[in-house]
Amino acid sequence: MVNLSDEEKMRLFNGVGSWNSYDAGGKVRSFTMSDGPHGLRKQDAIEETEHYADLNRSRIATCFPTSSCMAASWDKSLLSELGKTIAEEAQCQEVDVVLGPGTNIKRSPLCGRNFEYFSEDPYLAGTLAAEYINGMQALGIGTSLKHFTCNNQEKRRQTSNSIVNEKTLSEIYLRPFEIAVRKAQPASIMVSYNKVNGDYAAASKFLLTEVLRKKWGFKGIVISDWGACIGAPNCLKAGMSLAMPDSNGYFSHQLEKVYKDDAEVRAKLDEANALVIEAANKWTGGHQQKADNSKIDFKAHHNAALRFATNAAVLLKNDGVLPLAEKSKITVIGAMAATMKFQGGGSSHISTAPYPNALDSLKALGYEIDFAEGYTGEMGDTSERGYAQALELAKKAVAEKRPVLFFCGLTEEFEGEGFDRDNIALPQVQTKLLDQIIALGADVIAVTFSGAPIDIYFADKVRAVLHMYLCGEACGEACAELLSGRVNPSGKIAETFPFSEKDTPCYGNFAGEEDNIEYKEGSYVGYRYYEAKNVPVRYEFGFGLSYTTFEYSNLKVDVAKREVSFDLKNTGSVKGAEASQVYIQKEGSDYPELRGFEKTMLEPGETKRVTVTLDENAFTTYDTSAHNFVADAGEYTIKVGMSVRKIVLEQKVSVSAEQAAAGLSEVAAYTPDLPLYESFFTNTFYEQHHKGTFTAADNLGDMAKESFGVRVILKIINMIILFSMRGKSKNDPSVKIVLSAIAENPLESLISITNGIFTEKLMEKTVRLANR
Ligand code: BGC
After folding, report:
1. Residue 360 appears among annotated catalytic residues
2. CA atoms within 13 A on the CB side of 764
3. Ligand 1 centroid, distance to 311 Cα (angstroms)
4. pLDDT surpasses 70 at 103
C-alpha cells in the first residue's frame, strides 16, 4: 500500500477537475474518465477553464447508434463490437474509463434519457450491457455501468425518491445491473443521483455494499454520478469509492470534521482508497501504447456505425411498397431528411464529423428526388417551411404515382438529460403536414426518428413505416441502404410502443412535482403489464418486420441444459436476419418473460438449427424471505416468438427442483443482513422539506417556491447562464440540462458541479435565507 497522509487519503476520495482521479502528488496513478455510452465525449481544457457546462464542445469522435437503437439489433456480437470500437477511440484519446453503458429500465416511454438505455426488459438490458462491457474491457479500457439505480426519470432526478418493493426492485430494476456485474465485472459502477426508498442511492449501504459487493461480488469502484455525493462521510460509509467531480476541497472538509473520531470513516476510506488505486493501476495501461488521435481509423468506425444502424432500424409496417424500386423517382418531404436527428442531448452528445444525409445518400444510389422541407427541423421552432411547396410536391407525386417518403420525428428539445416528455406525440407542425399529404391520397412511407416510442397514429394510413431510432452519424446512409433494400431490415423494438402514454403502467405515477414516486405497478413493467392485463398496444415488445419471411419448426427443449432449439428457415427471396425470442411462463403466472434470444442470418431458402441458452434465472423466482432468487420448480410453457405476441412454437415442460436450481449454482452463498433489509424496505417515503426545515440536501427550485430571496437568486443565476451560453435558446438540450441542474441539484451538489463557483459559504447562506 502506498504511504499516504491523512489529507491525501481524504483527497483521493474526490476527483480532480471534471474527469480525473487524484494522483497524490505522483504517488499513485490517476485515471481519466470520459462519457459514453455511444461514443466518446472527450472534453479538452478550453482557455484554461474546463467548459464542462458546454456539453457539446468535445473532440471529434464516432457517434454510434444510441443504446435504444443498438438494443433493437438484438445482436450480442454487435454490442461487444460497439464496446471494442469505442475502446479503440478511447485508447487514442487517452481515456481510461468510459462512462457507460447505461442499463436503467425503461419504466415509462417518456423518460428523457431512454435513448441512452436498452430496454424495458431486465434480461435483455443486462445481457446487452454485459456484452458491451466485455467488448470494451477486453481492450484494457474500463467501463462505468450507470446509473445505479432506479433513475428512471429525468425530472427532479437529483432528489426524486423511487419507492420500490423488494421483489420489484430485485426482479426488474436491479436485475440488469446484476447480470452485467456477474457476467462482465465492469471497472466501475456509477451510482445515480436519486433517492431509493427514502435515502440517496449514493448513501445507501444496502445498495452499495449489501447488494452490489456482498450479494453480487462486485470488485470494482463505485463512482458517484457527477454531483451525486451528498454528505461525503455517509456516502463513504455506504460504500462509495470516488466522488465526482472535484469539490474544491469541500468533501475533504466534510471528512476532516469526523475523521479523528469516527473509526468507520477511517476504515472505509482505506478501503475506498485501495480500490481507487487498484482501478488506476489496472485501467491506465489501456491507452499508453497508442495515445495518438491520428491513429483512430474513423473510416472503419464510421462503417461499423453504419452496419450497426442498418442492423438495428425497425421496419414497423410494409405493405410491399418497400424496398423502393431501383433508381426510381421519389418525393422526399421533411426537414429531417436533410438535417438529420441521430443522437440525443446531454452528457452523451458526441461531436462528429459531417456525413451524408438521407437525401444525398439516396441520390448517390441513383434515386431521382423531389424534395421539400415542409417544416423546420430546428430546435424549438414549430414553424412551417416550404409547407405549400411540400403539398404541391405531394400532389405531383400522387399524379405521377411515385411514393412520398415523409421524414419525421422528435426534434432536439424532446430528448435529453434533465427533462422528460409529457406525451408521445410528434411535433404538431409535422403531423399536420403528414395528415394533409395522406388526405391527398399519397403513397406515404414514413421514416421516423426518436430514441423512444412515439405515437405512430398514422400506421393504418401509410404504406410503410421505418423507425430509424437515433441511429448515429451514419443515419443518412443507413436510411438509403434500408429503403433501397441493399440491406434487409432486421431490428425489433426492445420496448413496447403503446397507443398512448395514458396506457402505460406507471401513468400518473411518473415525474411528478414532488420527490416521492411510488412504483405502484410493481413488476408489471413494459410488456409484462400489457400481456397480463391484455392491453392493446400499437407495436408489441420484440416486434419488427423484414423484406423476407421466416418459418420456425422442430422445437426441442432441454430443461437440464436450459437449452431451447429449433429450425429456422428463410422462406423468402432475399437474405435476412431474424431475432428469435424465447419467453417462458410459469403455470399460474399472468405474463411471459424473456429468458433467451438469438439473432440468425439466413440466405434465401436456407435453414439453420438455432440453439438458445436460457438465462440462469429462467426457472427461479425472487423470494422475499430468502432475500434472493430461489429455484421455482413446476410446470412451464416455453414459447418461441418473433415478438412477445407472435409466438410460433411452444411446449409445456415440467421442471424439477434440481433442474430449477441448476442455474443458481452461479449465485454464491449469501447471508443477508436482515436488519439492513428491514430498514431499507420500511419507512420508504421521503418527507419533503419546507421553509424552516430546508437543508443543503434540498434544491434551489424548491426553496424558490417558498422564499422570495431564493427566487431572486435563481432568476439571476438563470440569466447569467443564458447569457454565458452565447445566445443559445432555452430549448437547447445543452442549456436545459444546466438550467435543470441549477434548479434541481441539491445545494451540496452545486459545489462540485459548478467547479467551486458555488461555495460552501454561499450554500450555508442560501439555506439560511430559504428558511427565513
Ligand atoms: C450524467 C452521467 C454522466 C456524467 C458526466 C451526469 O450528469 O448523469 O451520465 O456520465 O454527468 O458527464
Report:
1. no
2. 3
3. 28
4. yes
